[in-house]
Amino acid sequence: MNHIAQIVWKCFQDGQVFGDIYTIPFIRTTTELLGRIRNYRFKIYPKDSLIPAEVWKYDTESILEGLHNAIAHQNYEKDARIIVTENIDSLKFQNDGNFFDGDYQQYITGEKTPKSYRNPALVKAMVNIKMIDTQGYGIHKMFQSQKDRFLPMPDYDQSTTEEVVLNLPGTIIDENYSLMLLANPGLSLTDAVLLDQVQKGHTISSSAVAMLRKRKLIEGRLPHIYVSKDIAQATNQKVEYTKHKGLAEKKCEALLLDSLKDHGSLTKQEIVRLLWDVLPDQLDDKQKMNKIEYLLKQLRLKGEINNKSKGKESIWMLGKS
């Protein structure tokens, strides 16, 4: 077959870029590439224990799964190389082609079995020498391994219709998410994957939101959802939970009124500074300003505060105008 048949490994480490090129026979060179990847153990410290959880940065089986899948499912008509990029906190595998049968989400639970392959002869050969399996468990094992090691889930977010891109995290993105997995070993893989999406700020379906809410794993309203109070308390995320939720509207009103009572008057800028950090931190700047504007309008309509502007400066005081 007229094909370049190469794997390019690039490594970005300590401000330097280096790498190598590997070619056939891949049964040998993938093992060589595996040996070049920087893999080591690190510790995750639970907040309620002096005994850390010690985990590998990468699971060896997951590295080989990502690499062997790229070889097995590459679209060789494109005459393109497989690219493995090692960053300080992740591995990225790129191969030409798309998911030939279904999409990766269907394989996470391990229930889907592929019916056909782009390269059936190659896949059969790789199965015979135990490089891959044909039961559809490979992606499931990668996700399960990340959960078992309390790390963020793999993702294919950068994939296109022409290319499959697997990103395999090798470090903690959100410490609280890892501590949540550590404190809740019985959490299902499905729940862990969905909560991983929540932690990363990704959008999940309304049905998934309803399911997680029913299990009391999340709170908030779309699109601003966050880990629930029960989980937060179990994993020492109480401060983070309060920041996400912010003070209730009545408490914000009371804080403003108390401050006006203490100081006599406040400018609009001072009110913004007073309330900004107690509003839910998942609100963007525009939403926070709208929230403050609404609160001032409601208090003014109720006659509890009034506004006396001087030029461009807006000054607020207690009482009717």
What does this 3D model show about the protein?
There is one protein chain. By secondary structure, the chain is of the alpha+beta class. It has three domains: 166 residues, Heat Shock Protein 90, CATH 3.30.565.60; 70 residues, no CATH class; 70 residues, Arc Repressor Mutant, subunit A, CATH 1.10.10.10. Helices cover 40% and strands 21% of the residues. The strands form four sheets. The chain has a five-stranded mixed sheet, with helices on one face. Strands 10-12-11 form a three-stranded antiparallel sheet.
CATH architecture level-2 label of the largest domain = 2-Layer Sandwich
According to CATH, the fold-level topology of the largest domain is Heat Shock Protein 90
Strand order of the largest sheet: 2-1-5-6-7
Domains, number: 3
**Helix coverage percent:** 40-55%
- Note the gap between the termini: 85 Å
* Alpha-beta classification: alpha+beta
Largest beta-sheet characterization: 5 strands, mixed
Instruction: Specify the CATH class of the largest domain.
Output: Alpha Beta
Element order: H for helix, E for strand: EEHEEHEEHHEHHHEEHHHEHHEE
> How many individual β-strands?
12
**Rounded Rg:** 26 Å
Q: Look at the structure and give the mean pLDDT.
A: 85
Give the number of helices: 12
Low-confidence stretches: none
Shape: elongated
Strand content: 15-25%
